[in-house]
Every structure is written in structure tokens, then in C-alpha cells.
């Protein structure tokens, strides 16, 4: 689209960019300057409106446009919030280019700007000389003298603050210390180049060196192109686009000539600027194509490591860390979760989320120098957000590091500001370090994570189990990075497949001796992350321990290995008139061992109970490798240790054999289908069926959205799309009484304005109804690419109220929610639908899930009925239990698992959240 005529200079703002803005105001809440000032012209839509007005000739290129455009942080938060995808950042930068030519900086500010942006930063030798001067100032005694004599008071406040936290300048910049090519350790996977940058090169050179070590550790040859220059981000930010273009051309030549697969950047602003070279040089016929090609090769280091499947470290970095999202990493490059994944994979390190982690710190290129007042106000808010008591504040941008370090220093804080890659590098470097040295690194070590790795681990595992029972190649491990809860993922160190109790115990003894954490895993169908690694654990897969060991029908007992499929047990004894009662929706895939870990239920648990009601005994390998037999055939006196282990989610040991109770098939079974126009009527019918003294074997409900999903799925049955609820009611028992129960159920439904109610006409129709219901979870894939299922439990009498609140939460968070649940026992399964490709949707889905669980607890229920706590709901435990109760739970776990090696980090909240738990307990005591 042709540029508007109100801009006389080359490279003007493009009308095609501002015309997309519909002025909806969705950007207002995201804009830091608008939130501080509440001025429309200091908002993204206000700035776009003014840029459009200037293009149309309604305002001139003067102060009226200059101040709003240069007051912008160019943080790009508005772009993340904008529903129409307006390129606000590009419009701002193009408008600055026009203003830079119409109103060039004058006076001392103009002189300083030209000196640094045109004559120092673009010239590496001059920048390096400046570094030498700063080092001389720091080491010669001049710095101490200036501070003692109060000479620093002559500096502006912001510069004085920066001087106080400026790191010790290295003797030489990193590009002079690093080899031209650093070879990969082990097999070479990639050849990459590293942008050493300006500030990063001179001030934070150690980060560049750490980046090279991490990359070579992960199979990369790392090239440092000699002809590389400043990326041009500062120049673009200041409006000097011509200087930025010349720097871009030099970098394009330098990096394309290096013959590399990727260009790795560890500074958020630099990476974002280089990824926009294609747009910057779109009007240059010689460099247009090359600019676009290089832009596609540029990648942030955390994003790159996550993409290639980096090797999780085994060295420990004890402590807690919070993560600040640098603007041009989160909004410019859309890199948000990858740095968190790196941090979570570091043994000993606990990630504590920072509230509003993406809030701008006020650094923004040279913004903290040109607009120190606004930058200072934003910094205050950022430092307020740092969680109390953390050891590290990690981030991915040098400007943010200097800015936030200054804010912490001014508050007298002790938090250490680090680059994310520094912590990963430190973990790699600590591999093999004695535990006492690691424990001394910080005051509060975390527990339950990997000790230094023994390089002979894989060889030892192969010796114990054979090579066909050990996976260790990255491509083989990828499928084990999560279970059916896919929102958290990390790669294990290895996966092993023992075939019996003895082999399991041998593996556990080895891992205990090496202090390597391990995770038992069944079929990976769990919905709470119970079998998901945090990074570096060994997964002990029980999938090959899948035999039916014995059946004793006269005593109605069977003994199975943990990998035996739930439905297979019923199929094995069905022709003789028996079945296994617990029937989760995934029973055709889930294992009985997994059911034991989660205390799974199913559609028929209303009458027959959950897994713990059907387990008589277990054989278990404890975390130290000892084998224990609990319960069994006789009625064992003493404490119910079987009940303690069932539902412990693999945190107390690995169950290797299970003795279960079999049930005699009922003489008759009847199933009723009821269709309701109002979900409230269906909910009230559920309560009245139970109140009438009828105990159904199952009482299941689906709402409109769930009906839409199953009707689009593999097993449609022809439900009307306009009903609000489908109710399935099943009764079983002696044939003589079933018809009377059916008549009473039909009467209750009619009392509550049912549209249609009838029993199944045949066993075939009944089977179709149940196949339809049991595929509901999977069928939501017809509606949404991603879903999150919750598992709260509520009193039946509160069903209408809670379902209404669930609908409200869906609207508040902007997500659709389908409801499929065991209505008889109040076990809700809200399916929260979202698209993880859409920024922010995953976070909103998680927030919606947490809010639903809070509602469940508030009405007298619980956060889980059968899916377990796992990783997903561990922080929501604070809704249910006080600090003292959590301490008791931890103490019980430690009796069996004192070193937290067995499935670490599951069920109980992270230690860093104790303050939150304590506050919740206090609120409960005070009625708050």
C-alpha cells in the first residue's frame, strides 16, 4: 500500500499498518506509560491515531507528535494485546525516523546522542577503548575517590544509580577472549554464530562466554564473526534509521559469510532488531532478500536450546529464582516459556513466578537515559513485583539486568541479577561437584533433584536391564517429556523398562546410590502431570510389567503387575461372570498401577467406589530399593498402609504388584437417557434421584459444548444439538427390582421438565451411549487444538450454583468450557478449551482452572476427585490445606521418601510458596 503523503522523508509509516487499528482500546491495559499517565495520546491507540493524523496532513512533524512517539517504550506489549495484530512498534519506529530528520536532536543531548550512536557503538575498537576507560576508573581508585568526595552527586540520579551497580569491566571484551570457532563437545549437531553485541561484549562479557559453553555442550560449533557490528537497535530506537541500516548491512555480510545454520543472540533487544532486518531493508534492492534470509536465521539462545532438545544439566544450583520477561523477548520475539523451561530443568533451583513478569522495567534501549522519570516509576513497580526471598532474578537482556540491579540496590536488596544462560551454564559446570560445595552456594537448598551425574549411569542401567530396556537418545526421550497433561514438559535423562519387582529394585538402588531422582510411569494417560519430568530424572516405565499374574475366582481376587491395562482385567474374567469395577474413561489405555497412584474412579464409582476400595494388597519398591509387601489376602491388622500408598502419586515408592478385588457381574443392568433444555433442571434431577433413595451405579452428565464435541467425534449417537444437558443414569442388581427403579428415575426427570427420557432399547444402544460418553475428553479435539481438564469435587446440592460460576469464569477468562462429569458424586470435569498458539490463551486457561478449583473448595468440596494433584494442582493445595496440614503431609512422605528422590516435586506446593500458604491459613482463621 502506498505511503501517506504527510511524511516527506524516505521510509515513512505505512498506511497499511495503521489502518488495521479499529481503536478498540484492548491495548490500554497493556501499555506501561498509559497505565502511569492515563493519557490517551500516551496510549498505543492514541499514538497510532496521531501517526495516522500526521500521515493525512492533519498535524505536523512537531512536538505534538514528537513527545507521544518518543515517550513510547517500544516495549511491544500492546502488540501482544491487540486483537487485530497492529504493528505498533514498526509504526513508532518509522515515525521516529521521520521526526529524527524533521527535528534532529540539538544541543548537548544531540551531541551526546550522535557521539555514542554514530561514532562509538558502531565502532568496536572505540567501544572497547571506552571499556578500558571504565575498567581504569573502577580499578585505579578513581571510583572510590569519586564516591568518597561526593562527586557522583553531580550526575543525574539515574546515571548515579547505574554507576553503583555497574559490573566490574573485564580486562578485554568477550569477542577478543573467545576463539573464532569453539568446537562442539561430542557429536556436532549445528554450526551457529553468536552476536557478541555492544554492552554484552564490554560489560557482560561473561554471559557471552557462558553462552558459548552452553552451546558447545549441546553439540554446536560456535563461530564469532570478526566483522560483526552493533545490531542497530539503539539507533532505530532513537530514530536514526540510516545508521541502523548501514549496521544491518555490515552484519548481514558478516553472518551470511560465516556459513552457519543459525545466528544466536542472548540480548532481547538485539535479537528483535535483527529479526526485523527484512523490514528495515525492504526498500534496498541489493539487501532485501539477504536481510530477510538472515532475519529468519536469528534466534534467542533459550528458544534455540529448547527447539533442539538441549541436555538437561545434572549439577545443582540450589536456591529460588524468579524470571523477568524482557519486552523484546516476550513481545518482540514471542519467547516466553522457553527460558522458564531452562530454569525449571536446573536441579536444586525452584522457579517462583513473578507477578506481571512481562511488565516493562523501564530500560528500553536508551529510554532510561532520555526519560529517567518514567523509567524510574516503572522500575519501582518492577522491583515491587520481585517475590520476597528469592535468590536470583533471571532475565535475557543486558539493559534489563542493569536497570533491575539498580532498583534492587536502591532498595537494599540482596537478590542477584543474572542472565538465564548463566544459571544453566553454572549447573553444567557443577556437574561432579561434591554435595557439600553445592549446599554452600546458597542458604536455602532445594530438595528432590538430581545430584552430580555419574557418566557411567547409562552403562550401569544397560548392565542391569540390557540395552533393549534403556532409552537415552534425545529423539527417543522426546515422547516421555510429559503425560496427558501437556502444559508442562521436560526431558528425562533416561527411560528404563524393568520386567519385574527384582529389576525395579535393582534400578532404584542404583539411582538412590547415585542420588538421581526417578519417576514411575504407567501408560502416560494421567491428566495432572504426575509422570511428567522436571528435567534430568530417570523414568522407570512399568509398561512392560503388564502381566496378569494370578486369578482366584472363588475368593474373587486377582494379582496383576502395574502395567496391566485396566479394561484387560475385566475382559480376562468377563466370560466367567466377573469384572473389575473401577472404570476410568481411559480404561482401555490406562494401567492399574497408574490407577493405584492416582486412586482413580470412573463412571461407576458412585455405587462401587474408587480404586482404594478394590485394592487388597501391594508389593512396593521403596525409594531406597527395599521391597515391602503391604496388605494381601488376609485382613491384615494394624495401620492401613495400603490405603496410604493408594493415591500417593508415586511419591512414596513404586508399586510392582497389586492384589485386587473382583466383582460378580450384576444380574441385570438398565441405562436411562434424559435430555434437558436447562442444565439447572438436570442438576436438580440428579439431587432428587439420590434423595429418592435410589443408588445408581452411574450418574453422568454432559452439557451443550460437550454434546457438540461427542457428536462431531467418532461415536455420535444423534443427540439434539440444542439441549443443554444429557443425563445418563444406570442402575444394576437383581432383575426383579430394576424396572421399578427405572420408573422412579423417569418420574423424577419428568418432574424437572425433561424434554425426553427413555431407557436403552437394547444392549447395543446402551453400549453406544457409553462409548459416546467415554470418548468425550478426546472428542473435544474437534472443537479446540488444546484443552485443560479439571477434577474438582463438590456437594451434589451445589451443582447448579457451581456450574453457573464455571460458566462465568469461562467468560471472565475468555475461554470456552465444556462440562463432562460424574454428577452422582459431584466430581466435575470442566474441559477448558484453548489454542496454545495464541499468546496468552494458555495462561488464561490455567487461570480459569485454578479459579474453578477455588470455587469447588469454597462450596465445601475438594480440588481433585480422581486425577490427582501432580504438577498441575500442587499450588492449589493451598486452597484446601493450612500450612500445618501441609507440613504433616510432607512429614508422612519423608518417612518413606526422605530425600525426595521418588517422583520429586509432585503433590505438595513448592517450598517457595510457603508464605502464600501461611497467608491462606491466616485468612481461613480470620474468616477472610
UniProtKB/TrEMBL annotation:
Residues 8-42, 62-94 form the 4Fe-4S ferredoxin-type domain. Keywords: FAD, Flavoprotein, Iron, Iron-sulfur, Metal-binding, Oxidoreductase. It comes from the Bacteria. This is Glycolate oxidase subunit GlcD. GO terms for molecular function: FAD binding; iron-sulfur cluster binding; metal ion binding; oxidoreductase activity. Residues 488-665 form the FAD-binding PCMH-type domain. InterPro entries: 4Fe4S_Fe-S-bd, 4Fe4S_Fe_S_CS, Cys_rich_dom, FAD-bd_oxidored_4_C, FAD-bd_PCMH, FAD-bd_PCMH-like_sf, FAD-bd_PCMH_sub2, FAD-linked_Oxase-like_C. The lineage of its organism: Bacteria, Bacillati, Bacillota, Bacilli, Bacillales. Its cofactor is FAD. The keyword Transmembrane helix does not apply. Transmembrane segments: none annotated. The keyword Oxidoreductase applies.
Amino acid at each position: 500500500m502506498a505511503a501517506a503523503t504527510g511524511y516527506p522523508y524516505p521510509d515513512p509509516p505505512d498506511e497499511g499498518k495503521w489502518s488495521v487499528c479499529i481503536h478498540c482500546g484492548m491495548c490500554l491495559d497493556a501499555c506501561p506509560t498509559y497505565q502511569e499517565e492515563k493519557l490517551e495520546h500516551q496510549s498505543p491507540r492514541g499514538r497510532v491515531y496521531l501517526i495516522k493524523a500526521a500521515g493525512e496532513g492533519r498535524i505536523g512533524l512537531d512536538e505534538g507528535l514528537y513527545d507521544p512517539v518518543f515517550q513510547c517504550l517500544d516495549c511491544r506489549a500492546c502488540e501482544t494485546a491487540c486483537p487485530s495484530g497492529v504493528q505498533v512498534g514498526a509504526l513508532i519506529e518509522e515515525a521516529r525516523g521521520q521526526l529524527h530528520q524533521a527535528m534532529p536532536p540539538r544541543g548537548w543531548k544531540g551531541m551526546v546522542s550522535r557521539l555514542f550512536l554514530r561514532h562509538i557503538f558502531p565502532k568496536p575498537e572505540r567501544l572497547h577503548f571506552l571499556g578500558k576507560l571504565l575498567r581504569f576508573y573502577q580499578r585505579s581508585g578513581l571510583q572510590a575517590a569519586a564516591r568518597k568526595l561526593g562527586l557522583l552527586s553531580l550526575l543525574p540520579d539515574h546515571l548515579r544509580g547505574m554507576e553503583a551497580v555497574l559490573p566490574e569491566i573485564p580486562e578485554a571484551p568477550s569477542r577478543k577472549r573467545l576463539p573464532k570457532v569453539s568446537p562442539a563437545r561430542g557429536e556436532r549437531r549445528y554450526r551457529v554464530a553468536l552476536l557478541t553485541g555492544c554492552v554484552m561484549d564490554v560489560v557482560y562479557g561473561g554471559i557471552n562466554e557462558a553462552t558459548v559453553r552452553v552451546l558447545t555442550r549441546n553439540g554446536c560449533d560456535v563461530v564469532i564473526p570478526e566483522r560483526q557490528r552493533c545490531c542497530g537497535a539503539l539507533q532505530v530506537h532513537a530514530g536514526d534509521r540510516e545508521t541502523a541500516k548501514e549496521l544491518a548491512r555490515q552484519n548481514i555480510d558478516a553472518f551470511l559469510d560465516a556459513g552457519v545454520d543459525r545466528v544466536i543472540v542472548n540480548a532481547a533487544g538485539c535479537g528483535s532488531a535483527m529479526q526485523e532486518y527484512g523490514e528495515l531493508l525492504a526498500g534496498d534492492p541489493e539487501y532485501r532478500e539477504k536481510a530477510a534470509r538472515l532475519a529468519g536465521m536469528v534466534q534467542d539462545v533459550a528458544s534455540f536450546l529448547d527447539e533442539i532438545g538441549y541436555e538437561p544439566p545434572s549439577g545443582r544450583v540450589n536456591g529460588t529464582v524468579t524470571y523477568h520477561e524482557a519486552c523484546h523477548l516476550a513481545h518482540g520475539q514471542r519467547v516466553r516459556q522457553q527460558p522458564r523451561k531452562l530454569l525449571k530443568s536446573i536441579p536444586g533451583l525452584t522457579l517462583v513466578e513473578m507477578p506481571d513478569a512481562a511488565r516493562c522495567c523501564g530500560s528500553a534501549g536508551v529510554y532510561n537515559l532520555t526519560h529517567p522519570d518514567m523509567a524510574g516509576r516503572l522500575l519501582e513497580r518492577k522491583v515491587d513485583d520481585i517475590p520476597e526471598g528469592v535468590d536470583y532474578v533471571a532475565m535475557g537482556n543486558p539493559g534489563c539486568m542493569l536497570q533491575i540491579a539498580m532498583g534492587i540496590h536502591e532498595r537494599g536488596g540482596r537478590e542477584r541479577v543474572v542472565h538465564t544462560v548463566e544459571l544453566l551454564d553454572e549447573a553444567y559446570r557443577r556437574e561432579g561437584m561434591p554435595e557439600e560445595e553445592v549446599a554452600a552456594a546458597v542458604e536455602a537448598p532445594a530438595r528432590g533433584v538430581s545430584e552430580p551425574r555419574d557418566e557411567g549411569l547409562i552403562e550401569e542401567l544397560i548392565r542391569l536391564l540390557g540395552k533393549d530396556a534403556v532409552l537415552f537418545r534425545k529423539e527417543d526421550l522426546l515422547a516421555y517429556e510429559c503425560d496427558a497433561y501437556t502444559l508442562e514438559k521436560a526431558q528425562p535423562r533416561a527411560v528404563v523398562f524393568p520386567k519385574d519387582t527384582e529389576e525395579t529394585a535393582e534400578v532404584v538402588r542404583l539411582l538412590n546410590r547415585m542420588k538421581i531422582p526417578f519417576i514411575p510411569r504407567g501408560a502416560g494417560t494421567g491428566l495432572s502431570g504426575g509422570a511428567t519430568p522436571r528435567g534430568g530424572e530417570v523414568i522407570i516405565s512399568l509398561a512392560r510389567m503388564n502381566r496378569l499374574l494370578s486369578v482366584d475366582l472363588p475368593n474373587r481376587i486377582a494379582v496383576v503387575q502395574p502395567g496391566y491395562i485396566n479394561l484387560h482385567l475385566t475382559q480376562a474374567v468377563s466370560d466367567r461372570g466377573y469384572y473389575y469395577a473401577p472404570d476410568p474413561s481411559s480404561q482401555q489405555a490406562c494401567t492399574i498401577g497408574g490407577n493405584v497412584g492416582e486412586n482413580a474412579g470412573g463412571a461407576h464409582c458412585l455405587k462401587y467406589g474408587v480404586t482404594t476400595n478394590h485394592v487388597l494388597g501391594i508389593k512396593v519398591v521403596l525409594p531406597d530399593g527395599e521391597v515391602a509387601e503391604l496388605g494381601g489376602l488376609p485382613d491384615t491388622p494394624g495401620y492401613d498402609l495400603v490405603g496410604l500408598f493408594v493415591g500417593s502419586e508415586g511419591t512414596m515408592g513404586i508399586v510392582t504388584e497389586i492384589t485386587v478385588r473382583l466383582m460378580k457381574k450384576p444380574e441385570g443392568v438398565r441405562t436411562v437417557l434424559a435430555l434437558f433444555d436447562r442444565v439447572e433442571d438436570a442438576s436438580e434431577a440428579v439431587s432428587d434421584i439420590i434423595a429418592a433413595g435410589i443408588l445408581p451405579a452411574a450418574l453422568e452428565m454432559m452439557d451443550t459444548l460437550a454434546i457438540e464435541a461427542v457428536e462431531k467425534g467418532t461415536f455420535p449417537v444423534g443427540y439434539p444439538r440444542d439441549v443443554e444437558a444429557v443425563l445418563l443414569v444406570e442402575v444394576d442388581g437383581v432383575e426383579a427390582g430394576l424396572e421399578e427403579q427405572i420408573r422412579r428415575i423417569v418420574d423424577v426427570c419428568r418432574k424437572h421438565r425433561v424434554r425426553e427420557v427413555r431407557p436403552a432399547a437394547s444392549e447395543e444402544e446402551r453400549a453406544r451411549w457409553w462409548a459416546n460418553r467415554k470418548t468425550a475428553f478426546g472428542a473435544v479435539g474437534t472443537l479446540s487444538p488444546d484443552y485443560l481438564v479439571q477434577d474438582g469435587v463438590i456437594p451434589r446440592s451445589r451443582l447448579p450454583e457451581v456450574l453457573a460460576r464455571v460458566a462465568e469464569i469461562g467468560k471472565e477468562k475468555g475461554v470456552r468450557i465444556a462440562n463432562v462429569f460424574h454428577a452422582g458424586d459431584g466430581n466435575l470435569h470442566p474441559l477448558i478449551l484453548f489454542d496454545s498458539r495464541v499468546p496468552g490463551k494458555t495462561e488464561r486457561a490455567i487461570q480459569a482452572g485454578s479459579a474453578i478449583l477455588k470455587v469447588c473448595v469454597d462450596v465445601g468440596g475438594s480440588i481433585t476427585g480422581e486425577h490427582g494433584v501432580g504438577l498441575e494442582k500442587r499450588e492449589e493445595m493451598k486452597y484446601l490445606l493450612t500450612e500445618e496440614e501441609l507440613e504433616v503431609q510432607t512429614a508422612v512422605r519423608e518417612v518413606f521418601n526422605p530425600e525426595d528422590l521418588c517422583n520429586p516435586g509432585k503433590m505438595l506446593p513448592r517450598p517457595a510458596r510457603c508464605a502464600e500458604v501461611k497467608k491462606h491459613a491466616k485468612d481461613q482463621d480470620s474468616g477472610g
